[in-house]
Design a protein that fits this description.
- The chain is of the alpha/beta class.
- It has one domain (56-206): Vaccinia Virus protein VP39 (Rossmann fold, 3-Layer(aba) Sandwich), CATH 3.40.50.
- 34% of the residues lie in helices and 21% in strands.
- It has seven helices and seven strands, in the order H-H-H-E-H-E-H-E-E-H-E-H-E-E.
- A seven-stranded mixed sheet has the order 3-2-1-4-5-7-6, sandwiched between helices.
- A hairpin with a 7-residue loop joins strand 6 and strand 7 (199-206).
- Helix 1 packs parallel to helix 3 and helix 2 runs antiparallel to helix 5 (104-117).
- The radius of gyration is 16 Å and the shape is globular.
């Protein structure tokens, strides 16, 4: 049986302040309230939300690149859904965060979650392919698409050479194998702190456009 992982365990694991933990607790309460109506996350995951959603997202913070000298880090989260990992990272104060979500109902949730947690984010209620380039330093995504497709979606929204950080599940080896042979990417595979069967892919060298599918 999986050991219980609550808000206090999350705080110990991540070192967040009491204020930040309170904001994340408000976020979870809103998620539990809205989830039956618009199915933001799997219902069975809510009993372990601090591990499966909040730690899963927060573990990306130390993997982010340092901000440029003249401005905050610009992070674009593709297919934000319920806000994982993008909104969690914004609450943790990683910089300028853009959430991209085409589903209007999910965008309504994200807007309300940002309001109740007092978090500044830019919300784009559009398809990723329809967005003007966002010139991000880093692009994140969770459970959105296979790796080849993710990199293709990320390319137009990154600076000249940018970084992708993608949360991946059990099929990560197949996705890595499926990458085009010509793709010149620096890929670091990192074990997930929230799920022993999952991984994080830190993909460097993405430039507009690395390859097309």
């Amino acid at each position: 049986m999986t050991e219980a992982f609550d808000a206090e365990a999350f705080a110990r694991e991540t070192g967040v302040s009491r204020e930040t933990l309170a904001r994340l607790t408000c976020y979870l309460a809103l998620l539990e309230k809205w989830n039956p109506a618009i199915n933001l996350v799997g219902r069975d995951t809510l009993s372990d939300a601090w591990r499966r959603h909040f730690l899963d997202s927060a573990q990306l913070q130390p993997l982010l690149p340092p901000p440029p000298a003249d401005r905050p880090l610009r992070l674009v989260d593709l297919g934000s859904g319920a806000g994982f990992p993008g909104l969690v990272l914004a609450i943790l104060g990683v910089g300028e965060v853009h959430l991209v979500e085409s589903d209007s109902k999910k965008c309504s949730f994200l807007r309300e979650a940002a309001r109740v947690t007092g978090t500044a984010v830019t919300l784009h209620n559009r398809r990723i392919e329809a967005l003007a380039p966002l010139k991000a330093d880093v692009v994140t995504a969770r459970a959105l698409a296979p790796l080849t497709a993710l990199i293709t979606l990320a390319c137009p929204h990154l600076q000249h050479t940018g970084l992708g950080i993608f949360l991946k599940g059990r099929g990560v080896e197949e996705e890595l194998t499926a990458l085009p042979k010509a793709a010149k990417l620096a890929i670091e595979r990192i074990s997930s702190r929230s799920d022993s069967e999952s991984a994080i892919l830190r993909v460097g060298g993405i430039s507009p456009c690395t390859f097309k599918i």
